[in-house]
Design a protein that fits this description.
The protein has 249 residues and is mainly α. The chain is built from seven helices and four strands. 61% of the residues lie in helices and 9% in strands. The strands form two sheets. Strands 1-4 form a two-stranded antiparallel sheet. A two-stranded antiparallel ribbon has the order 2-3.
Length: 249
């Protein structure tokens, strides 16, 4: 087992794997060989061999953190082992400020990301709602402008179902066209949001992953919203009588 010690890093940008960097420790610059880089949000610590770091810091034999790997990875086993270690350390006269298991840490980050996901979903829901209202208003105006056309179709025998399906199909077509135009535009906008949110919360851009499942889900949402937005104008169109539509000016 290799015991590692942590060193506070103010900046690690631009460091390449198997490259070298200069790190100031106790006012003296030291050349370090970087074996690997692991980005962890809000964590600006580098890890190196414990004995080497403690010697150059003048704290030989002293440590500030203890990392333990358990054979069982479930949360209860980790919590039980953490309690045992904490009790043993206290009995040995070593003060323990805090302890955290991998499950606790994973739950913490999951809660943070859940908040971000809810925030982004609420932002996405607002344009969807505005688009639905806009589509409903546009389809209502479309029905008003085509009143005489609807009357002529009713006069030559068009059924209520046919007129209603025409209005709903038009609204659905407009929604699908908007979805087709939005898919390619979503890629650069998502990249922009990844950079903005990542730099704001984690001091580094978030990884962009294109989700075909998400695109299909939004297609389903667009279809449902378009149909719902077209139902009221279609209901208004089928309620018009032949006399009312032909006398409309």
């Amino acid at each position: 087992m290799v015991v590692l010690s942590n060193v506070l890093l103010d900046e690690l940008a631009g460091v390449k794997v198997d490259g070298r960097m200069t790190l100031e420790v106790n006012g003296r610059g030291k050349q370090w060989l970087v074996a690997g880089v692991m980005f962890n949000p809000f964590d600006k610590f580098g890890y190196a061999n414990f004995h080497y770091v403690s010697n150059i810091r003048g704290t030989s034999g002293m440590a500030s953190a203890l990392y333990v790997r358990t054979e069982q990875n479930d949360g209860q086993s980790q919590a039980r082992m953490a309690a045992i270690l904490e009790e043993r350390l206290k009995e040995s006269g070593i003060e323990v400020n805090s302890s955290m298991t991998m499950e606790t840490q994973a739950s913490f980050w999951a809660n943070q990301f859940d908040f971000m996901v809810v925030f982004l979903m609420s932002m996405a829901a607002m344009p969807a709602l505005i688009g639905a209202l806009g589509l409903a208003g546009m389809m209502s105006l479309n029905v008003m402008e085509r009143t005489r056309e609807i009357g002529i179709m009713r006069a030559i025998g068009a059924s209520t179902r046919t007129i209603g399906s025409i209005i709903i199909t038009e609204g659905l077509a407009i929604g699908i066209i908007s979805w087709i135009l939005a898919v390619p535009l979503s890629v650069p906008i998502s990249l922009l949001f990844d950079n903005m949110l990542g730099n704001a919360f984690f001091n580094q851009p978030l990884d962009f992953v294109f989700s075909p499942v998400g695109v299909l889900i939004w297609l389903i949402v667009v279809v449902i919203v378009s149909v719902i937005a077209s139902v009221l104008p279609a209901f208004r169109a089928i309620r018009m009588s032949v006399q009312e539509t032909l006398s409309y000016k």
